[in-house]
Design a protein that fits this description.
FAD/NAD(P)-binding domain, 6-stranded antiparallel beta sheet, 5-stranded parallel beta sheet, 15 helices, 19 strands, about 25% helix, binds flavin-adenine dinucleotide, binds iron/sulfur cluster
Length: about 550
């Protein structure tokens, strides 16, 4: 990787302070601001993985942009603590309701709130999808086809991997590739995975992680303290707060934190979105914009669209074909742990260290389609207590087992759950503190999903046993929501087109994980950012939609 080339297209890492401070306060204080009546080129709802990447790219094309986020504008040094319990404020903990055959618990394991989005507290794994993910329906008769191919994302994967940057060993799975930074040294949990995988005949690799292995721009290197899921105080782990927003602000973007968007404005005469209604300091405002990007994460993006119903869209904005909120996906994410006589001290390294994608693709000899990946996860003590309690241990037994924490190693799987129409976000009867209906998430697993979880658990147990572990235990969990406003070839199979522009309202774009038709068994953030960068390129080369482009019958 040539740092000079990265800096030319994204200067974020060099715009951070070169000393011990983590935030460029002068950049934030000198940020350009817009009035509500300034009709900006783009207003972006959600400054997370998708929204921030889109802003950074389009700001460099001269677009006048306001980015709005419901949560705070984090200062890593002042706001975050190296403490598991003290990090709760990073999560979206506003009310949501759940249902379905296999309800997914929501809260700290789902989405973030604040500038930088969920990547503030994501683990940092940054794998790519495989080519097979994009054509599952055609090739395997399950899931869905994307209206794009792997080749459409490949150059953007390479660009974003350099900007984060990603560290890891050369990658043999999917389309084989290398990473811009060499792999990190591994800790006790990573060593267990490597040893067990070798003994069980499974290929494993160090990485890929979006954690700087060495100084990058003015960002510090990793200090291996293992608090990645609590927000990295030293700026070693990538998140849009430090990898894309400094450059976006430098190029004229206004970030408006602590601001909740309640509804998308719409002009029935032109059939175009007009901006967004938002709530700030208890007052309602309206930001005018020529284009609206919705990037609120797979729960809040469909919720905002549904909450934006109007006469033209009585069932929710863009919901002509009852697709908004549907085909929501989580990955099945069981975690399996084992006890070792020697001390492992799994907290003493980033949780993301070593992974395998050997089981990612469909194995014709198995009764299920698609597959799973396996990664080190290294829960900190509070999360570890959930593992122990899930085995039925409580009181004195729980305390005894917790004091044994340093002897345990833990692996996690990501199982590709299939997109099902009935897995969806709808509006609940319950309202939030702003009086807005909250999201209701309904989820049920199909037989294929359940078989994948069992298969992944068996492989993790084999790896841990082969490494010499005993007392193997598993907790069933979920991770990584995507879908809910998927892209499709036509308006009958997608809310947005291949460029992530809404079929029904051409000046609404959705650049977040909601647009994914399938999810593979890769962690999604890198793909979300790569796709947003692709969408930005497409937008920058096309004229802004005007009323004349509105599909027939869309205007009242
Ligand atoms: C514990 C955990 C670990 C994870 N680990 C990994 C990992 O290792 N690798 C990986 O690739 N992925 C990981 N993920 C997932 C990854 O972080 C997300 O998939 C990704 O960040 C989602 O990007 P997004 O753009 O869709 O939304 P986000 O990044 O979540 O951004 C959405 C933003 O929109 C804002 N918002 C929502 N609604 C509104 C509204 N109405 N008004 C104003 N603002 C609004 C929110 O405050 C939020 O900041 C992890 C997630 C969790 C929870
Ligand atoms: S282990 Fe490294 S990347 Fe993770 S929080 Fe600590 S310094 Fe940041």
């Amino acid at each position: 990787m040539r740092y000079r080339d990265v800096r030319k297209r994204n200067e974020s890492a060099w715009l951070l302070p070169a000393d011990h401070r983590r935030t460029n306060q002068a950049l934030r204080e000198g940020m350009r601001t817009f009035g509500d009546d300034d009709e900006v080129d783009l207003v972006v709802v959600g400054c997370g993985a998708g929204g921030s990447t889109l802003m950074q790219r389009l700001a460099r094309h001269g677009w006048r942009i306001v980015g709005i986020d419901a949560g705070p504008f984090w200062d890593p040094e002042a706001d975050w603590v190296s403490d598991e319990a003290g990090s709760h404020k990073l999560y979206w903990t506003e009310p949501r309701t759940i249902g379905g055959g296999d309800p997914v618990p929501l809260g700290s394991n789902n989405s973030g709130r604040g500038v930088g989005g969920s990547m503030i507290h994501y683990a940092g794994y940054a794998p790519r999808f495989h080519p097979s993910d994009f054509k599952e329906l055609t090739n395997e008769g399950v899931g869905a086809d994307w209206p794009i191919d792997y080749a459409d994302l490949q150059p953007y994967y390479e660009a974003i991997e350099e900007e984060l940057p990603v560290a890891g060993q050369p990658w043999p799975w999917g389309v084989p590739h290398r990473y811009p930074q060499s792999p990190h040294p591994v800790g006790g949990n990573g060593e267990v995975f490597q040893r067990g995988a070798l003994a069980a005949g499974i290929e494993a690799r160090v990485g890929p992680v979006a954690i700087s292995n060495g100084r990058f721009g003015h960002r510090s290197h990793c200090i291996y303290r293992g608090f990645c899921l609590q927000g990295c105080k030293v700026n070693a782990k990538a998140s849009p707060l430090i990898t894309h927003l400094p450059d976006a602000i430098e190029h004229g973007v206004e970030i408006r934190p602590d601001t909740m968007v309640s509804r998308i404005g719409f002009d029935e005469r032109t059939g175009l979105a007009t901006g967004v209604h938002y709530l700030r300091n208890g007052r309602e405002h309206f930001q005018k914009a020529r284009m609206v990007a919705v990037a609120g994460y797979s729960i809040e993006t469909p919720r905002l669209l549904l909450n934006s119903a109007n006469d033209r869209f009585p069932n929710g904005m863009l919901n002509d074909f009852d697709l908004v909120g549907r085909y929501l996906m989580v990955q099945g994410a069981p975690q399996t742990a084992a006890r070792f006589d020697s001390e492992i001290r799994m907290y003493k390294a980033p949780p993301p260290e070593v992974s395998t994608e050997q089981f990612y693709e469909t194995d014709p000899s198995k009764p299920y389609k698609r597959g799973f990946s396996i990664q080190t996860v290294s829960p900190l003590p509070i999360t570890w207590a959930e593992h122990v309690a899930a085995q039925g241990h409580w009181g004195r037994e729980l305390r005894e087992r917790m004091s044994d924490y340093v002897h345990w190693a833990c692996l996690g799987a990501l199982c590709e759950f299939l997109p099902l129409a009935e897995n969806r976000i709808t509006l609940s009867e319950e309202k939030d503190r702003h009086g807005l209906p909250v999201a209701h998430m309904s989820y049920s697993q199909c037989d294929n999903d359940k078989m994948l979880v069992d298969a992944a658990t068996t492989v993790m147990s084999e790896i841990l046993s082969a490494a010499g572990g005993t007392d193997v235990i598993t907790i069933k969990r979920y991770a990584h929501l995507v879908g809910g406003a998927r892209m499709g070839a036509t308006e009958r199979d997608g809310v947005v087109d291949r460029e992530c522009r809404a079929f029904a309202v051409p000046n609404i774009v959705i650049p977040d994980g909601s647009v994914f038709p399938t999810q593979g068994s890769a962690n999604p953030a890198l793909s979300i950012m790569a796709n947003a960068a692709r969408v930005a390129d497409a937008l920058a080369t096309r004229p802004m939609p005007s009323a004349t482009e509105v599909p027939a019958g869309a205007a009242a």
